[in-house]
Amino acid sequence: MKKKYFFFILTLFIVMNGCKQRIMVKYPVTKTVDTVDTYFGTKVADPYRWLENDTSKETEAWVEAENAVTNQYLSQIPFRDKIKERLTKMWNYPRYGIPFRQGPYYFYFKNDGLQNQSVFYVLKGLKGNARVLLDPNKFSSDGTVALTQTAVSHDGKYLAYSIAKSGSDWNEIHVMEIESGKMLPDTLRWVKFSGMSWQADGFYYSRYDEPKKGMELSKKNENHKVYFHKVGTSQKEDQLIYRNSKFPLRNYGADVTEDERFLILYESESTSGTMLYYRDLTKKNMPFKQLTEGFDFEYNVVDNVGEKLLVVTNYKAPKKKLVLMDPQTPEPRKWKTIIPERDDVLESVTLAGEMLISEYMQNATSKAFIYNLQGKFIDEMKLPGIGTLAGFKGKKGDNIAFYGYTSFTFPMTVFKFNVQKNYSEVYTRPEIGFNPDLYEVSQVFYASKDKTTIPMFLIYKKGLLLNGKNPTLLYGYGGFNISLTPSFSLSRMIFLENGGVYAIANIRGGGEYGEDWHKAGTKSLKQNVFDDFIAGAEYLISEKYSSPELLAIMGGSNGGLLIGACMTQRPDLFKVAIPQVGVMDMLRYHKFTIGWAWASDYGTSDTKEGFDYLIKYSPLHNLKDGVQYPATLAFTADHDDRVVPAHTFKFIATLQAKQKGNNPVLVRIETKAGHGAGMPITKQIAETTDLWSFVFFNLGMKFKE
């Protein structure tokens, strides 16, 4: 707005278009530059390259101008305030986290309803009196400083916790005495992609070197290192445990077994595939021993059983298995299979009450089975229904464990579980003004372009007429082995209340059917992901759930890429597109922060093969002049250092310049927020209000109070 290349925003106004309202929009004019890159003989223009500098005064002015347009548009939607009022009322109910034990204490999170951040409680024994151990709402007046992780020492003496400011991935670690509640002076900075794993009076964590000032949110993250911090000392005294200067683009994480016998080190160069190392902590100065080779497979240590390690792996088992590995002879031929691979995907294993609780995924819903330590099947765990088992918490010597369970019409409920009796009882159940009997959940299966069968969940009010006249939102992700399973969503309910159909497609690239399903949506096969999603939209239309004029699509992060690719490939198929914090520039994504780690799914433009397939679907590079694209509201945030906001900035600037017709192209740029984690309730409600206001208005829906 302050620069000459911005025009003042013209007044927005509402006009009538037949029976539908339309808000006219005049966008700021965005400066272009003559930046051109050459990839293997192909010249690719990048006229909005300057928007990659997200801390410049020019970019700040552009953000201000774009937000002004978006805010003025949204303010004219007549039912926006009513949606916010309804969401605030719905959000206002107590929510509980899953308890876990450490030492003599139990710990859990609770939110009274509209608290910006959930509060961390402690009680001594299950029948003890709960007291507030840590209240993140006191970290900042606006709730934008969030508690990101907690780690309690094995004896229950200390709490290490990390905080993030304004949604950034950068964390600070602090330490507290649990019994007294006294804060200790320990402060650890420049921590990212790290846990905290205790050994005696200290813990292991991972960090980067301090970045240059002004580059904190965009500089490529390199040279990850593992340190040991002893309570009561300064960060300068932390002991360097592991670094690998030969490979600056790798990440490292350390984890200590429950008995503090072994230190496990994980090495990765992308989002899939790990190398495994271990160190026997009872042997002084023992070097790390490498246990596995390469990054083709996943290895996750559950815990040790005496001298050996229980490991979940997809080595020669795409749907995973549990093996017992002797670190002295770690070769795969010497492993003992405890739980073999089966038709369903093994998601995790927990040691509880001297039993193995194995969680599986069957057609994107949870199953759980109980085995003894020798791998003998004992029983199937009795779950409340078809849904998702979440956050199973148990310990080797405890017969009592806790878990969460949720489904599309079943708010997250915490259960207390007797391992030996295979018996669950409700521990905390949310009291919410919601009647699940009014809604129907179904799972359908449809054929993708190459005839692959794809599952999709549908949620809607009972009595739905299949007449093609139902407003529908199709959601997807399709990447990084991440699965979309049934869960309860407050924000989703307001759409369902008003007659919407909510669809979730379990497309390739995810983990719903194991590693083969994941790999079928990566690199040169990434187009399968978009074909699966587009076929889901076509199914909804052909089966008369909806029509192109009533169909919205939404996804975040890698799902934002999904939305960007599908709306550019099939703009005729959708009325509304909501790309959230999306990866939109597939030629340059790996040049920012942690983007390089996504190459296992995407490949990169540094190779001719990678460039050749990336340029074909990169959302930024496939926008065309004179095409009417869907009504678009993109979301990003100024502190997103996971998927930097430049992706969305450049995509929206290009789309605004090329859009034909009257469908609006807007961007909502949140301040003091990041990729989504830790966002305070006030900001969540405000963002969700704007999302549904835009969707309702552009699908021609009326909000019913």
What is the general shape? globular
Level of helix content?
10-25%
CATH superfamily of the domain at 13-89 and 441-698: Alpha/Beta hydrolase fold, catalytic domain
Widest sheet, order of strands: 34-35-37-36-38-39-40-41
Radius of gyration: 25 Å
How confident is the prediction overall: mean pLDDT?
A: 94
CATH architecture group name of the domain at 13-89 and 441-698:
3-Layer(aba) Sandwich
Query: Which residues sit in consecutive blocks of at least 5 with pLDDT less than 50?
Result: 1-19
Descriptors:
41 strands; Rossmann fold; eight-stranded mixed beta sheet; five-stranded antiparallel beta sheet; 17% helix; disordered N terminus; Methylamine Dehydrogenase, Chain H; alpha+beta; 705 residues
Structure notes:
The chain is of the alpha+beta class and 705 residues long. Among the domains are: 13-89 and 441-698, 3-Layer(aba) Sandwich (Rossmann fold); 96-212 and 226-235, Methylamine Dehydrogenase, Chain H, CATH 2.130.10. The protein is 17% helix and 34% strand. It is built from 10 helices and 41 strands. The protein has an 8-stranded mixed sheet with strand order 34-35-37-36-38-39-40-41, with helices on both faces. Strands 5, 6, 7, 8 and 9 form a 5-stranded antiparallel sheet that branches. Strands 10-11-12-13 form a 4-stranded antiparallel sheet, with no helix packed on it. A hairpin with a 5-residue loop joins strand 11 and strand 12. Helix 2 (80-91) packs across helix 10. It is globular, with a radius of gyration of 25 Å. The relative contact order is 0.11.
